[in-house]
Sequence to fold (544 residues):
Amino acid sequence: MNQKTKKTKSMMAVALTIFMVVSMLSGISYANAAGPATLTLVSSTPLDLTYPTTLQLGSTFTVQVNIANVEDLWGVNFDLTWNPDVVTVTKVQKGTFLTSEGAADMSPATAIDNVGGHFPSKFSHVLLERTGVTGGGLLTTITFEVQGFGNCDIALTDVKLLNPQNQEMTYNTPLPSLHVNNPTPAATAPTAAFTVTTNASISGQYITLPSGATTTAIVLDASSSTPGYDGKQAVPITNYSWVIHSVNGLFSDITATTKNVTISDIAPDELQITLNVTAPATNPPAGYVATAQTSRTYTIIQTASAGIDVYTQKGGVGPNAPGGKFGPQQQVVATAHVVFNGAPVAEKDVIFTVYTNSGAEYAYAVARTNTNGDATFSFRLPTPDTQLEIAFGANWAINAAVDISEITYTDSLKFEFNYIANIKNVTVSPSTVVRGTGQVQVTVNLDNSANVTGIVTFTVVDVNNVPIAVATTTIAGSSVQVTLDIPNYAFVGQAKVNVNLLSAYPKAGGVPYCPQNGATVTFDSSGLFVSGVQNQPAQFAIGI
Fold:
């Protein structure tokens, strides 16, 4: 070992020894010329959080120990405390402030105690020359890893700042700390989700096979499902259960217990695909749900080698397939898909014709196909008026026609135009009750083939048109029922119940699905409006 190396090592040892010894002594503090130094802790991410925001387990963040307003700083020494159940320290790196003026330095490796949550031998950084630095900057950077949920403080303790004369320097108190609040997430169930891929075309709920194809394969992938969380840790999915059902009965149900499923030999059909996932926790908390399910239905059709297919947003894909049910004032979007040799045809004009239930022309429109071979025509159905009910029916139709090389191709679909939901009839039992003590049970049978949601309202008015009872219930299936009390103040005589179907509660902006209580409209021989006569099958008598 040469003399220069010996001299350098000797200087380092002396400096560190002096610094470590002095740091263990009380020393004699003196007022800094520029006032007390200021120590701060700065985190790279917010730590004091409010649910549902949390720190992800395993994620890392850094805390910088900075100093400001210091004069002639030669060495620094401190401890840090934390709760290892919430965070642990993975790395301690010295800062650049002490060496900012180019002086040689020494900073031994910092011992980390992630059981007790502190630095047993403290963090130390000292210059090898009898010179100091003035101003402010970074003393050290500490990297933390998130281990759990809860509260703790990351606190600076037992700080020693020394000048080149081995004298302790003053600093502002209390020493800084950072509060960590990592809220415990609520227990959440897993989610079931899947994607569908195939060499055929997929658009919405339709899978279109190429012209002439008799078989194809679709791949179901459940990778997009997410694990559960039991309030402490993620609960992985351990079981995938598939059921692929042929709605048209062309094959028996296919079941599988794997994340990925491939189905082959699919003829034009309708597939109902159901995925169940299970993520069982070892000691599940109250309310934890370990299972989730999702289901989707696909219509599989085959593209003609040349031709046109017209459909609406509610159905109709395929030759002459039905296009769904629409109500008054609803928008109908008709799309015509044009192909030749199985490929879409762009820049072709398509004529759309809309026919009423009686076969009369309702509308004409011409639209041009885009690069996907699609031409679109949208129109709105009429508002309820004196003649609307006459127009109701299931035989409204849309016809689409296109010319390809002097050959006309056409396709038609039928759709139903009616109230989306309607009151079929109302019955009341018993028909005679005693006011003040009697009750009536009102049953409403509905036409709810569109499976709408909303509420049913009931208002009973006595013979003098005084409302005497009111109730609401949720639209459920094809029948609802309520029980109403008849009060003492009801006038004796014939009373009636008015029933309405609304899209939501009136305060929430609910609007009627249909006329009140199945109202009917009377016309004269010329079709002119004569009178609106309410159909009141729910009249009943109140006896005394």
Q: What stands out?
A: The CA atoms of residues 241 and 257 lie 5 Å apart. The chain is about 5% helix and 50% strand. The helical segments are 3-24, 388-391. The mean pLDDT is 84.
